[in-house]
Amino acid sequence: MTVHLKHVAIASADPDNASKFFVEVLGWTIAGRIDSRNARGYYVTDGTINIALLNFKNRPAAGMEFDEGYTGLHHLGFQCEDIEEIVDRFENSGFAPRHDVNIAQGLGMNPAKDNAEYKMTGPEGVMMDVSERGWVGTATFKPRPA
């Protein structure tokens, strides 16, 4: 059995701003809104994956392992058609490159790397990978030229 990533949740201090990132920078759509006793936020999608951007209203709903006010996860990866265009879109929307991580990992237009080409800042400070080539093991991965 194969399992495919279809949903990710990001704990967000400001789901309105976070949803704008996905819509304005990445061109995604808002698939739904939530305002329950446990959380407020949005579901955004690119048609393949769903990401929930949730401001939890109480700690039990978020999970007791998360401190009150916790936001984020580690990082998400996005494949794009034009790396320079997407980096520009990030920067023009106020989401800076993570030069510290890019330098430490030898990222950039590095033909020796198998996946992420740039680490960028995303909403809530969540790190984002952006890549034209994609990730090994995915259907859309483009191997290095020989």
TrEMBL record:
One Pfam family here: Glyoxalase
Species the sequence originates in: Sphingomonas colocasiae
Highest rank taxon of the organism: Bacteria
Domain VOC per the UniProt entry, residue ranges: 4-133
The name this protein goes by in its record: VOC family protein
